[in-house]
Design brief:
The complex is a heterohexamer, with 3 copies of chain A and 3 copies of chain B. Chain A is 71% helix and 0% strand. By secondary structure, chain A is an all-alpha fold. Chain B is flat and about 55 Å long. Chains C and E meet through helix 5, helix 13, helix 14 and helix 15 of C and helix 2, helix 3, helix 4 and helix 15 of E. The structure holds sodium ion (3 copies). One sodium ion is lined by residues 146-148, 326-327, 360-361, 363-364 of chain A.
Chain lengths: 376, 115, 376, 115, 376, 115
């Protein structure tokens, strides 16, 4: 009996915990702290951090595949939805059902700013290739600058699944940090006068326009870039459910039960890829650093294009709405509003900034499609 | 493809796509002029006992058939008139019943329960 | 670089769009229009039409299966639930939880009318075999006359999956058109006096009866026709959840979150079977035509049996309730009511028509079971 | 099987099934006479502090065992009395607690939160 | 044609029903009666009994696996979530989101009582090994004493799936019978004075404590017993969603849509394992008998440990809270309350009993982990 | 392993685990003293037009980086200062925007709809 107790003791996690795993347990507790008490995108960071915690408990086998007759672990099965690219588009379905493209339709110029901010994907991508990452890893790092969780996870799961953990954590953390990362850059690149520009109200958009928009985007983007169809198509189908007025049941489920279930599954299984062996190496730090740079460069390029539009239109466009092009809906748009109101407290810029903001979602899905079709 | 071409291709595609979209969307006001005053009430349910609400126009029937027939004809080179279904008679009474079946089951069955 | 841009251009959908696909994009836009603005069963037609649209965007690969290590497309995975026969019974679970069989229990004669209307399945089935369809295709076409989406999709996915697109579209479109298709037939086959018959009130049904009914139907139908168990069993389990009074949680989820999620998945993946190659051929037109005929013949046979019951009972049964036997719950029952009220405005026939209406659901599930057990 | 036999078989089965059901259902009023006045409130929750509500009859315990034992006995040819569990004592106090566990957790835990 | 009708008749269930199946149909109707009209855990017993009913309808094929190109039956696919161990942890996620560990945190001594009641697992386990069950079957029988459906199903599906039917039925039935099984044992083992002990109020627990608790339990239990990670981890993640205050969306979905969907799937597929061949044998009776004994012994050991704590603390602990350690949340805690109030009507013991009650859930998950790691 | 050793192991593990937990939990009052008066309102939404609510402390930025950097350094034996990101400037304005993105999309888009 003593020897079986002994063998049992040797099979406990306490006896098998590596230093790296202990460190990772600490890191996941810090992420939980940031998610819960500092409210860093808690809907994603809490499941991700909990997945990290579970995967770093030794010998639990929850990420192991099936062996012979023995079934695999729980997280192994949940992870299949990430691996097969199922969760991110379906989460986008819910995001689409939550998104109002009205401000974008009212002001189609917004789309240009949503395009410009995608430099935040490609600048860090190029840099990453020069500091030693291969093209697929560099593309996965660059997509952090898309500021869009499902897009980042979709692309990374196809190109470089071993980097899923740090990339998802970087993407969601920096999205939460947008109100801290963006304002200094925005102020540095604009003059007081530019920041004070009042863009007036936005025109009202009819139901018909809102219904036609998602169908049109799907067809045009789908024809231009077939690889973007899963993301764009799902986003636009969700938006169509929202706007028809006769599919409220589907819209409601897409933006509640379905997205919440998949967010739990996605978060836990993405977090579970962050095992100590994979996560604790200098690459992770480089990813975290490049991710910050991605957000910063996207912001900067958005603002710079905003300035160009300011000049071209003779001062009618407030360049601060450019920074909202990085996505991070709706925080980046709110940052534009807050920074603007510092100069001109009565200026209600939010709706104007929502245009580039949602355009940024489309823009980064297209960028992801290009990367996927060339490298995938 | 090296990182620079890929960047060119990527940003190029992003700009082409979004500029294209911007152009198309900027034509929306031409095609869909008047914004509606208020959002149409989703699936307005006609009063069960009333005779009003002939909401479905009498031309509604043949639309589906016409469209698919035209599509098939166009694709297969058939003469469009060679296959004809004209018998979906435009019912005078009609009735505005075209609402989601499940939603209705739900609403309908409740009064039945509480009788 | 130019050659890679060139090869990229050649990989866009614009360069690969066939005429058939362009046509199909137009057809799906028309279906979207009918679903959204004409309210043709929008909960199903919108996802189906969007699935058609997606599948006809060239090169997107969303319906491709996995190749080696490369995962399959999103819709390929969603389609598995259709292919394996999982979605339709689970959708029936929700339909059962939404259905009140009270009117049927109060008036068991209704079941006969629900049976008679199933000629609407077999008459077009026989005709289809004579105009060149094989037995499995003819059965799939006939089932359109069941006027029941999940049943039609369940049977077709097992017998003739390549016809799923046109059959699902026909089934849901004609269900939406029931108020236009049925009244002329009903008036042609009945006299003014028959249409005016007032059937009085219906008896109150106790909770015990409502609880016993689904259990009994499952056992009797299941013993008579094993192949109908998935559909009938799921429908009746959902109804049992509704009626027990102690499983409201399950009933609520079955008729909201679960049915909505599966409706989205089912609709998109059924629509995705309608690729240009498959859809654009004269067979599709024949299916559309036979589908209309199926609805018409089901209506006619239901009314004729209603007349027989009128005679047998000495004028106590209004033959107009016979047309409700085609299912298309609850629209066919409402049509009975409206046509009746034309003659006798104070006559409240709806509850009497709900009996054949829900009986028609059971009837067509049984018919599907017979077709499946012989041809499957 | 040709199309006509299949049609005969199909409509035959449909009619047999639905006529059979109709016959059985038409006997319902014989077996389940009085319709209840109102639907029973789902899972009535006894007042936590009250002593009332001995809703579960004292005979409730052995039912499950008796039924399964009888089933097994019938199936395996054992004498019904050869295997016996009689010890589920009919508790005098009892208590009407038989309500869905999760529903309860929910309701119970709320007051605890707000103390 | 007559011969094909004949062959069709021979393929009906009526012609193929065995006596055992008929008996099982009767048993499932009795279980439905108990679930619906006697309210024995209806959320589980109704789906389980309906699954039993379906599986005993001959020739339906709903539990058959795929053969060649022919897809499997509906319940075959639903059962995969049981077989692969996916449903029970995800149901525990919802249970965690519904559970308030506050009373346990306020009174950590409760954990001891939750441990003691686990003798209710191991005493019947030992006895079962002596009356002819092998170790894996005996462990599956013992776990009934854990009074925790998902834990029992998780362990049995891994160790002895052929016993799933009787074990799940026994577990849920006895949980429903806790108010009848426990009080006589509780009164037999305690004095009037002991039963009247007033334990006062419980301290208020801060949000921070409630947030830290699930993280800590996951780490400590996960390190001690890796095999318990799926159950404990999911339970605690659900509880974390509940307590953070920033993940209410996820908590809400975990305790409604997700748990309800999986409860339906789990119930039906667990019930479907109870085919006549498997269920109707003397083993089943032994399992039912041992299950009752399991509940009784867990109750007794909980009360005995409660008495020990009564003596050690000099009469400050009411031994009646010990019986709540068997889990069966929250009924066992309510039984403690009711039995206590018989002696001392003003004594509000419920919150004190909730501590051992929820501790019992953790305790039996750990016990299941030990059994799984040694025998799995 | 026979049934008795397994029982010993099982009950032993259960007791060790739960006693261990009990010990740790009984230290909670030492670490987390004051119970908060009321549960914090989930994700308090700042007034869109107001300037108040700089809820996020200015030190929030570098936390994530610092922690992960320390973890990597500790694990890889690098000198902690050899890789440095110090540029997450503590924004004076800040803004309390750190709330769940989807929840917000939802809330934000509604007024836009109803304008
Ligand atoms: Na973006
Ligand atoms: Na029907
Ligand atoms: Na327990």
């Amino acid at each position: 009996m003593w020897e079986s107790i002994n063998s049992f003791l040797l099979s406990t996690g306490f006896m098998n915990l590596t230093g790296g795993q202990l460190l990772m347990l600490a890191v996941s507790c810090v992420l939980l702290y940031l998610g819960i008490f500092r409210k860093y995108e808690p809907l994603l960071l809490v499941p991700i951090a909990f997945g990290m915690l579970l995967t770093n408990l030794p010998l639990s086998g929850i990420t192991d595949g099936p062996i012979g007759n023995q079934p695999g672990g729980l997280v192994y099965y949940l992870y299949q939805g990430v691996k097969l690219g199922i969760y991110p588009p379906l989460i986008f379905l819910g995001v689409g059902a939550m998104t109002d493209f009205g401000p974008l339709i009212a002001n189609p110029k917004s789309l240009l700013l949503g395009a410009a901010a995608q430099f935040g994907i490609f600048i860090p991508f190029v840099i990453a290739t020069y500091i030693g990452f291969d093209l697929r890893a560099a593309a996965s790092i660059g997509i952090i600058g898309g500021a869009d969780g499902p897009t980042a996870i979709f692309l990374t799961s196809r190109l470089k699944p071993e980097l899923l953990g740090p990339i998802a954590i970087a993407a969601y953390s920096y999205m939460a940090l947008v109100p801290i990362i963006q304002p200094p850059i925005m102020r540095a690149l604009t003059t007081k006068k530019e920041r004070a520009v009042d863009m007036g109200g936005i025109r009202q958009v009819s139901k018909t326009e809102k219904v036609v928009f998602p169908i049109l985007v799907t067809i045009l983007c789908g024809l231009l870039l077939p690889a973007a169809v899963p993301l764009i198509g799902a986003l636009m189908l969700g938006n169509l459910f929202r706007e028809t007025g006769v599919t409220d049941r589907l819209s409601d489920t897409a933006q509640h039960a379905l997205i919440n279930i998949l967010t739990i599954f996605l978060g836990v299984s993405v977090g579970s890829t962050a095992s100590a062996e994979r996560f604790l190496n200098p690459e992770t730090l480089k990813i975290i650093a490049l991710g910050l740079f991605a957000f910063a460069s996207g912001t900067a390029m958005g603002v710079i294009f905003g300035k160009i539009m300011y000049w071209v239109t003779g001062g009618k466009v407030n360049p601060l709405i450019g920074s909202a092009g990085v996505s991070a809906v709706p925080m980046a748009a709110r940052v534009s509003q807050v920074v603007c109101q510092k100069e001109n407290p009565g200026n209600y810029l939010l709706m104007h900034a929502m245009g580039p903001n949602v355009a940024g979602v489309i823009g980064s899905a297209i960028a992801a499609g290009v990367l996927l079709s060339v490298l995938g | 493809m090296d990182q620079w071409s890929l960047t060119g291709l990527g940003m190029g595609t992003v700009f082409i796509a979004l500029i294209g979209l911007a152009l198309v969307v900027s034509l929306f006001p031409v095609f869909f002029r008047k914004p509606e005053k208020k959002r149409v009430d989703p699936a307005p349910l006609p009063e069960l006992n009333s005779r009003s609400a002939p909401a479905v126009s009498s031309a509604v029937g043949p639309e589906l058939v016409a469209v698919i027939a035209a599509a098939v004809a166009a694709s297969s080179g058939m003469a469009p008139g060679s296959f004809c279904i004209a018998s979906v008679a435009p019912a005078q009474s009609g009735g505005g019943f075209n609402t989601p079946v499940w939603g209705h089951v739900d609403r309908l069955s409740r009064p039945a329960n509480h009788r």
